């Protein structure tokens, strides 16, 4: 019985230390996942707004004699930026 208690005393602190390290790792993983999920959501939203803007610019081009095509260009750029943001966030979530 005494031998078991001394073995426990030797290993107990090591086990507690390893458990604390594992808790720190899971906290970091949760933080990265939360941030990348938020980034993906923002990127998707920006992409949707850009797509809608581009479509509105195209729809208005016959009425504005092509002047609204600049709106289409802006929408396409914003959509691409949103897509890139979402892609980078998803990539980070998978590989970090």
UniProtKB/TrEMBL annotation:
The lineage of its organism: Eukaryota, Metazoa, Chordata, Craniata, Vertebrata. This is Apolipo L3-like protein. Belongs to the apolipoprotein L family. One of its GO terms (cellular component) is membrane. The chain crosses the membrane at residues 41-63, 69-91. GO terms for molecular function: lipid binding. The keyword Transmembrane helix applies. One of its GO terms (biological process) is lipid transport. Pfam families: ApoL. Keywords: Membrane, Transmembrane, Transmembrane helix. PANTHER family: APOLIPOPROTEIN L, APOLIPOPROTEIN L, 1-RELATED.
């Amino acid at each position: 019985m005494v031998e078991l208690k001394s073995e426990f005393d030797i290993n107990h602190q090591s086990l507690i230390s390893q458990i604390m390290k594992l808790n720190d790792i899971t906290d970091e993983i949760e933080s990265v996942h939360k941030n990348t999920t938020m980034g993906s959501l923002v990127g998707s939203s920006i992409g949707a707004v850009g797509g809608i803007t581009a479509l509105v610019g195209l729809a208005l081009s016959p009425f504005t004699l092509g002047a609204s095509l600049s709106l289409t260009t802006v929408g396409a750029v914003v959509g691409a930026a949103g897509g890139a943001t979402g892609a980078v966030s998803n990539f980070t979530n998978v590989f970090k």
